[in-house]
Amino acid sequence: MTKSRDDEISKNTNTMKEILNHFAIPNEVADPKPLKIGIINDSFIVRAAKPGERSYFLQRINHHIFQNVEGLQRNIQIVTDHIRRKLIAAGETDIDRKVLELVPTTDGKLYYKTPEGDYWRVYVLIENATSQEKLTPSSAELTGEAFGRFQCQLADLPFSELCESIPNFHNIEFRLWQLDEALKADVAGRKAACADIIEAIDRRREDMCLAERLFREGKLPKHINHCDTKVNNILFDQSGKPICIVDLDTVMPGFVLSDFGDFMRTAANTGAEDDKNLDNIHVNLEIFEAYTRGYLREATFLTEIEKQLLPYGCRLLSYMQTVRFFTDWLNGDTYYKIQYPEHNLVRTRAQLRLLEEQEKVADQMTAIIRKLQ
Length: 373
Ligand code: GN1
Ligand code: MG
Hints:
By secondary structure, the protein is α+β, with helices and mostly antiparallel strands. It has 13 helices and 10 strands. A hairpin with a 5-residue loop joins strand 5 and strand 6.
């Protein structure tokens, strides 16, 4: 997908309308408006033409990254059906606001492929709900409960029902292998200027592959996880209560450390994921404690080793994101959308600083977890 084609699609209302025509949308809707969220897919909001009718969330799936769109969409359908059944069984009300709903195409498929080879999907929009970049301790505690509940809801879904929408997605050994390939090729000629980053990554390799080793030894289990628990992937209602977990693209078996760590990477960071000012970046232990309290209350299935490793999970996810952003920088920015030329390098340095900050407070995190158990 070239940049000019990207621009052409976002600007061309007729193209977008044509795409929407392929979905089983029963009511009249306004023109799609682009939304700046995420750094992988392109998202648009499609408002109902008349008040009181349904609005929609249209996305172009990045099929260079999600190469098995069929499997990806099937996963989402399986996961949302499963959660819906759990909500009904629990006697919940307002279920349409608590779980995502895919809108099929007019011929009953879960996505539409254009003649040019782009993939599109539509969700029903959850009204009066917002995502947040920063939480208060009380909203963090409720969010911890929500993610713990999410994992519990999926605990009885057999792994074999889901495909890995991106194989080895949160496998750090694989991510380090990709980094090594990028370093060998050095296609963009950026390696020489990054010796300090390479050294910082290398020094931690063995420690950061601990979870994969424990898994091989049969000591650390896998569960179905969300695998993208950035703080902005949960919707809140107007009273600040979490209602629905969104962005289900990467729901797959993995370590609970992934979901715990990715949340802390974004929510318990006083800076931004791509902060240019590294002095902004510290660990917010208040958010850490509040989220952990909520999470441990709901995630009753956790084994002792999983609980012990939670602070390690925070470091693992910051490390993994350092490695992933850095690999993309070395590869000449082919994976993540960037807003300016050095963006991936800035992201790399910001994630590395977060990791260093997390290392400083590792003992405090452990003490908090002991206290909460
Ligand atoms: C990507 O685009 P978004 O926000 O859904 C990425 C995550 C990263 C995140 C970093 C499929 O997520 O793994 O943690 O960027 N998703 C994929 O901001 O690679
Ligand atoms: Mg995502």
